[in-house]
Amino acid sequence: MTFDLGFIFQVILTVIRYVPITLYMAVVSLIIGGALGLVVALIRFYQVPVLSPMIGTVITILKGVPLILVFLVIFLITSQNFNSIAKAIGLQIKYGDLPMSLLAIIGLSLMAMVGLSEAFRGAFESVKTVQFDVARSLGMTRLQTIRRVLIPQAFPVAFPMIVNMLINLIKGTAIASLVSVVEIFSAATQSASSNYKYFEAYIAAAIVYWLMTILIEQAAHRFELKFAKKMERARA
């Protein structure tokens, strides 16, 4: 068995066409998971009675469950119950009409929610207590304190973890291949199905993932530099 370098380039050209669907699933999951994670982090940070311990238990459970298992559970529950639930609430849609990428987005959003809720909660802890005292002395409500003090100061701390989560979500989109969604990993596997050159195909997929990661990290680094300069000008 010979190593086919040319086939690697051929597969790279093929899988690049599926970068948009991969980015779409990852970015949408990041937005949904980030919004849910922010709410979860705020509930746990302010120790809301009943909700805080309940959500803490759910997060602990989800942290200990592999992503692929979460996805399979979502798939089984949806495939078996969606039609009856849709009929009960009057929706004229069936399970077969759903885009399969939606299931992957749900699973990835849960993954993002768990990771980012912990990232946000840690970032909130970095905000000094005196900042809250000042906000109270100025007559700010809790919602105003969250919007004007807590989130603006916690965001720079959480930003590297948000970027890291995006990268993990991009790699995690490979689970969509389980329900026949063609993304980078699935496209690479299909490319090798006719000649069994899976080793070269997986190398090609790895190269594309690697290049995407480099571009994201470079863009994030430039954003951090610009944000830091903006903050320095604001303090001056």
TrEMBL record:
Name listed for the protein in its UniProt record: Amino acid ABC transporter permease
Entry keyword set: Amino-acid transport, Membrane, Transmembrane, Transmembrane helix, Transport
InterPro entries per record: ArtM/GltK/GlnP/TcyL/YhdX-like, MetI-like, MetI-like_sf
PROSITE patterns cross-referenced by the UniProt entry: ABC_TM1
GO cellular component: plasma membrane
Location(s) in or outside the cell: Cell membrane; Membrane
CDD domains, alphabetized: TM_PBP2
Entry membrane topology: Multi-pass membrane protein
